[in-house]
RNA sequence: GCCCGGAUGGCGGAACUGGUAGACGCAAGGGACUUAAAAUCCCUCGCCCCUAGGGUGUGCGAGUUCGAUUCUCGCUCCGGGCACCA
């Protein structure tokens, strides 16, 4: 039952919230203006996928963003605070199949519903800039960017292994393969070689890594995750001659210092030279069936646990270019084709994987780096030694320290033309092709005569077929729709076929923040003038689950758009706040756990302001927030107390009048002081680290002072001016968190202005200063007494007072005083 | 395995650059108002000891310091990320 039905003491949040939401919307209060007299501030929350309805995570994310937006407006900034929809993606296809509807229909219905929910929360968005990425007016520009990237050689095609379901005739993302079977039809998934489009993100690897240093407004955690994801390694790449063969086997190592300890070579099962090695080879059949087996195993295991190390001798040898030593070549299941060269020089003495492999197959262990204070002996080593040390048995390099030897050996390789230093990244190029319907079509055409041809920019957008064919599934992939893919070649005019893959939905979210700066611009993807006015985003807020992919892709796109001439920035997000999850009963809210709290219910029962207030008050933004129903009631109670106070004192507050400091009585002085202290602290809490939880606490303290000072009949009464000062400031300080509530109370006591027109209050340092201080007296570091002293006391006087203090003297008890430490205006410590 | 975080009352959380531990809220207990309940208001609230008062206390163990939740070293537990990356 709604609380406001049962008691007239409760303020009518429904009426108030509706009133102000309508007011803001019809007045375009939050339209971002082109006001060059004000400094710009762009605050952005990660836009939602229109899944159906908002959840508590959204409420938290958007409340945080809204407080920042509103705070910055009060501070006099020209604020851009837009919202939109990341609206391509698989759930729409699933829902369409389930409801026999169309993905577009489902998506736009959800957007309408969720937009309404966001409005009910009173979020101060500039709705005139709203975008939906599934709209051709958005993806048209994405297709143009794609073509310009193609032009610049940042896009290319290649063939890779993908998960394929035979019955659904589609590629599946890794997440859609459940225990080796298709999630939709249970058919066993197969590995298939498929052609796809890739973005050359690796071309930007070095810059993406280096520029992390510029991001001092990002959490260290996210920086570290990105750094690890890019995974830069520096080392030696060199070639081993294959015995009785013209080919060479190229390897990459970060430990060139151990090259004299190589006792065998491991190559990946997919290594391209493997077939060459097996020509006219008696072991060929055995090796081939082994290779088949481990490829199967890899597929089944996916990326999960480590499998046991396995391998097989190919019957062939290669020679170490440094000492000519012949070493056997093995195929090993732990060597990745996708990293380095797909071949690894094996040094069992100094690499744990090689060690285990050598032990299993009885291969030699040859230590060549002796760490200080050890005496490695191959015979009794139980694990690899990975410590640095002095090189032994390494010809002319023996005696060198391993760190120094790394460079010396690389130099040697370069001089003798057997190898060179090399940098390898863990980061791979970004495969963007998806064999799905509900995504942005890739604007390319295949002509038998002319090959792959880009769609002409004037012919964009390449739109998704919207027809709902009764015979077909409404979201059948594009390769099943002749009317879509049959076209003519832009070059020769002959018959040709469109690319039928759509883009990964991460592409849309990689540049939407830039499109918000000119969302209706019709000449090109971005209006450069607007983009450079607003970008970079000053404050970006979202879940840490996007720490790697979305943020990395957005950084990549920013650099690409810069190189295409659209942007003049290197990094998109100046400051990043990763908010914690909303938890209930110790777990993330989820349908399967049955611990979800629906924001709709909260808004119905307590109103948007209370809902926002609780989500801001219960924890600092970066930490997880534990749901507590009683805590929401506490927040509701707080707002009601303020409401009641303002109602009862309305006449006095309106009468208000000017504050004359000289004539304040002691109670008035105390409230005046508390007001200014509160302004100072709340401002500090927001400025420093967006700790709204403590900011709200401060406002609560102010209100507690106000109500106890005004309620105490024993004391001198408070005049209207000082109450008015306290309330006016309290409302502004609280209004970023509870905007409707504060706007309404403000309007109740001011006829000539709205709260939005106000400036953030400033504090008077003089007024905020305490005139009495509590000084702690310690004896040997333990608190023994407290003294009330005038605020302007000096150290000498303080020391004198402390040494006369009776409760402290008790603990000195005749002992000699060795030292007295006085901390200005804080404490005196007497050491005996 | 490697790399990041974190640990403070019954609970969520405060504590500026080392200087009164527990702000604010929740819960709990007591009281006022009420025929009663709800709402509201007031008081108490880390633990231990016999009160005045004292002892003890920020995951554990050391250290630096007049003084450590805060700094250093060594652990334990929890959370997250990456994971055969050569």
CATH architecture of the largest domain: 3-Layer(aba) Sandwich
Strand content: 15-25%
Distance between the termini: 65 Å
Query: Count of DSSP helices?
Result: 28
Helix fraction by DSSP (H/I, runs of at least 4): 25-40%
Mean pLDDT: 90
Secondary structure tally: strands: 34
Shape: globular
> How many strands, what sense, and barrel or not for the largest sheet?
7 strands, mixed
Tell me the CATH topology of the largest domain.
Rossmann fold
CATH superfamily of the largest domain: HUPs
- Unreliable stretches covering 5 or more consecutive residues: 1-8
Structure description:
With 832 residues, the chain is an alpha+beta fold. The chain has six domains: 13-144 and 506-600, Rossmann fold, CATH 3.40.50.620; 164-197, no CATH class; 232-425, Isoleucyl-tRNA Synthetase, domain 2 (Alpha-Beta Complex), CATH 3.90.740.10; 441-501, no CATH class; 642-768, Isoleucyl-tRNA Synthetase, Domain 1, CATH 1.10.730.10; 772-831, Ubiquitin-like (UB roll). Helix content is 38%, strand content 19%. It has 28 helices and 34 strands. Strands 10, 11, 12, 13, 14, 15 and 18 form a seven-stranded mixed sheet that branches. The protein has a four-stranded parallel sheet with strand order 2-1-26-27, with helices on one face. Helix 19 crosses helix 20 (629-648). The chain starts with a helix and ends with a strand. 40% of the residues are buried. The model is unreliable at 1-8 (pLDDT under 50). The protein binds one RNA strand of 86 nucleotides through helix 8, strand 11, strand 15, helix 11 and strand 30.
């Amino acid at each position: 039952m709604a609380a406001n039905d049962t008691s007239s003491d409760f303020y009518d949040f429904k009426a108030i919230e509706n009133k102000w939401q309508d007011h803001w919307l019809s007045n375009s209060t939050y339209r971002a203006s082109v006001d060059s007299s004000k400094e710009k501030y762009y605050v952005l929350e990660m836009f939602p996928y229109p899944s159906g309805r908002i959840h508590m995570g959204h409420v938290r994310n958007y409340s945080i963003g809204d407080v920042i937006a509103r705070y910055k407006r009060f501070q006099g900034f020209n604020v851009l605070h837009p919202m939109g929809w990341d609206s391509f993606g698989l759930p729409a296809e699933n829902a369409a199949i389930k409801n026999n509807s169309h993905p577009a229909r489902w998506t736009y219905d959800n957007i309408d519903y969720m937009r309404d929910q966001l409005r009910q929360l009173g979020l101060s968005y500039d709705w005139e800039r709203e975008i939906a990425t599934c709209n051709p007016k958005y993806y048209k520009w994405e297709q143009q960017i794609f073509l310009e990237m193609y032009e610049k050689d940042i896009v290319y095609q290649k063939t890779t292994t993908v998960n394929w379901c035979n019955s659904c005739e589609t590629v599946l993302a890794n997440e859609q393969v459940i225990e080796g079977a298709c999630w939709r039809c249970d058919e066993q998934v197969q590995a298939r070689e498929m052609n796809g489009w890739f973005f050359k993100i690796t071309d930007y690897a070095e810059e993406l890594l280096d520029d992390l240093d510029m991001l001092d407004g990002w959490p260290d955690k996210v920086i570290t995750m990105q750094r690890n994801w890019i995974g830069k390694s520096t080392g030696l790449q060199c070639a081993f001659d294959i015995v009785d063969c013209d080919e060479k086997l190229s390897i990459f190592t970060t430990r060139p210092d151990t090259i004299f300890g190589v006792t065998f070579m491991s190559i990946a099962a997919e290594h391209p030279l493997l077939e060459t090695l097996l020509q006219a080879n008696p072991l060929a059949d055995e090796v081939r069936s082994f290779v088949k087996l481990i490829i199967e195993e890899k597929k089944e295991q996916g990326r999960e646990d480590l499998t046991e190390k396995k391998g097989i001798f190919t019957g062939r040898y290669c020679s170490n270019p440094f000492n000519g030593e012949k070493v056997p070549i093995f195929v090993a299941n732990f060597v990745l084709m996708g990293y380095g060269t797909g071949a690894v020089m094996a040094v069992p003495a100094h690499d744990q994987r090689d060690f285990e492999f050598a032990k299993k197959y009885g291969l030699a262990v040859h230590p060549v780096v002796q760490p200080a204070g050890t005496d490695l002996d191959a015979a009794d080593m139980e694990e690899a030694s990975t410590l640095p040390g002095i090189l032994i048995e390494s010809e002319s390099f023996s005696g060198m320290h391993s760190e120094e030897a790394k460079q010396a050996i690389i130099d040697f390789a370069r001089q003798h033309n057997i190898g060179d230093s090399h940098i390898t990244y863990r980061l791979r190029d970004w495969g963007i092709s998806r064999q799905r319907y509900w995504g942005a079509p890739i604007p390319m055409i295949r002509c038998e005569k002319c090959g792959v041809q880009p769609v002409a920019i004037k012919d964009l957008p390449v739109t998704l077929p919207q027809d709902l064919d009764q015979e077909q599934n409404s979201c059948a992939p594009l390769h099943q729709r002749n009317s879509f893919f049959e076209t003519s070649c832009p070059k020769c005019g002959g018959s040709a076929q469109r690319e039928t893959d759509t883009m990964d939905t991460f592409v849309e979210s990689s540049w939407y923040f830039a499109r918000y700066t000119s969302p209706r611009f019709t000449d090109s993807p971005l209006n450069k003038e607007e983009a450079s006015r607003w970008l970079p985003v000053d404050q970006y807020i979202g879940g840490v689950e996007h720490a790697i992919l979305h943020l990395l892709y957005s950084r990549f796109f920013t650099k690409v758009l810069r190189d295409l001439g659209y942007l003049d920035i290197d990094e998109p997000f100046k400051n990043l706040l990763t908010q914690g999850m909303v938890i209930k009963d110790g777990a993330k809210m989820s349908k399967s756990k049955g611990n979800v709290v629906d924001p709709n219910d909260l808004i119905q029962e307590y109103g948007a302001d209370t809902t926002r207030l609780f989500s801001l008050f219960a924890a600092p933004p970066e930490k997880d927030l534990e749901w507590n129903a009683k805590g929401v009631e506490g927040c509701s109670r707080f707002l009601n107390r303020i409401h009641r106070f303002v109602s009862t004192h309305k006449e006095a507050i309106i009468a208000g009048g000017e504050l004359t400091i000289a004539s304040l009585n002691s109670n008035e002085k105390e409230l005046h002081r508390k007001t200014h202290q509160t302004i100072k602290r709340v401002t500090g809490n927001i400025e420093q680290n967006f700790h709204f939880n403590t900011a709200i606490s401060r406002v609560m303290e102010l209100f507690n002072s106000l109500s106890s000072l005004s309620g105490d009949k024993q004391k001198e009464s408070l005049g209207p001016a000082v109450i008015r000062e306290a309330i006016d400031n309290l409302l502004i300080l609280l209004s970023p968190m509870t905007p409707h509530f504060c706007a309404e109370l403000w309007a109740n006591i001011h006829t000539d202005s709205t709260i939005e027109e106000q400036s953030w209050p400033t504090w008077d340092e003089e007024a905020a200063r305490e005139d009495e201080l509590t000084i702690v007296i310690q004896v040997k570091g333990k608190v023994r007494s407290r003294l009330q002293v005038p605020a302007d006391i000096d150290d000498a006087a303080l020391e004198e007072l402390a040494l006369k203090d009776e409760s402290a003297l008790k603990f000195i008890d005749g002992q000699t005083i060795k030292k007295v430490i006085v901390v200005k205006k804080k404490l005196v410590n007497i050491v005996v």
